[in-house]
Amino acid sequence: MRTGVLIYKDVLSSLSPEAKKILGLILHKGAMTKSQLAKVAGLKPTTLNRMMLPLEKADLILPTETGESTGGRKPVIYDVNPRRYYVIGIDISRLYSQVVLTNLKMELIEKDRFDMDRNSSPQATLNRILDWIGRVMEKRGHGYVIGVGIGTVGPLDRQSGIILNPENFEAQGWENIPLKAIVEERTGLPVIIDNGANGAVLAETRYGSGKGMKSVIYLNCGVGIRTGVISSGTLVRTINDADDTFAHMVIDVNGKPCHCGNQGCVERYSSIYAIMEALAEEMTPEEMPQGKDRRNHKADRPVSYLELCREAEENDTTARQVLQNAAVRMGTGLANFIQLLNPGLVVLSGPLILHSQLFYEVCVEAAKRRRPWDKGGHLVFSRGGAFEENAISIGAGALVVEHYLEPETFG
């Protein structure tokens, strides 16, 4: 191995199903003693020792500390090695893109994040991401990368690794881009591609705020509203691997026309585009400069969603009302979604949520007002979840690990 360089190693696929089960238990439930592992896995100590042997030989797990004694020798606690194996996670979204390096425990080590604009063509975006990966692999030091995950907007041909015809990228040319093939060729690493929201909900459920929960909803509110759902422990996939399941739930049968062909979809009221459109509709002719596009320019009103969020928090009446109206619509649709899926955790994230406490609070309050599904008060709402703005990129890395541990589910 060359000194100072991360190198690809296909270590997980060579493990037996039994060894993968033990590795998964430690990853998802945390460090444990052998007696605790044997109890959780339902195994005899001799069988457990045999299953753990290849994990120890490969440096995937290691003794980290000594537990409390119950009268004899202090037990050894085993954990996943945080400094031997790594994954790369890529988040390609319409407002920004991000690439991270994490260990197998989904602990963030390094990242690069940049805004997407009209110059962010597929070539420019991927060149920046791949250049960063190259630099990180050169400087990082000893260790192995097991793969790259890409979380992006849909629709996708997931098996072929192609982003098909996504809407609302500022730059041109994002149709039919073979992301998987490009990244594999440049890095020499295996690549898993999926909708970013699917990766995020997986990360929250297996490594984050939803540990131990069977059903979790993740909603990313930005230019569009992206959905990731785990129900009864299973990642829910949609037709054509689309990520807009919730976005096109109809909440007003006589509402605004949507590009999907329906009327009154959640996205037509509660996405960034819809909110900025609603703000423009509140403008008077006197407020609109001559010759300007009223959707984008205003004399004394915000011209970006960031300004809108800020002014709403500062009690600008119009900005606040626009955000509140959008949040109430979102919460109404969310109540229906919760009624259908009965989750233990709802994570609201994405640019709009992370920049507007007001939007989050009004949305959650609106959902809770319609809550026959939560009379016991067991449902938890989270603003941003455990991973906040890093959820999709870390989730993309989680997809790689889970692909090896459960190929039938996440392959």
Automatic annotation (TrEMBL):
UniProt keyword Transferase present: yes
Keyword Kinase on entry: yes
UniProt keyword annotations, A-Z: Carbohydrate metabolism, Kinase, Transferase, Xylose metabolism
Source taxon at top rank: Bacteria
Pfam families found in the cross-reference section: HTH_24, ROK
Recorded GO MF terms: kinase activity
GO BP terms, alphabetized: D-xylose metabolic process
Family: Belongs to the ROK (NagC/XylR) family.
Job of this protein: Transcriptional repressor of xylose-utilizing enzymes.
PANTHER family xrefs: ROK (REPRESSOR, ORF, KINASE) FAMILY (PTHR18964), TRANSCRIPTIONAL REGULATOR, XYLR-RELATED (PTHR18964:SF110)
Protein name per Swiss-Prot or TrEMBL: Sugar kinase of the NBD/HSP70 family, may contain an N-terminal HTH domain
Organism: Desulfitobacterium chlororespirans DSM 11544
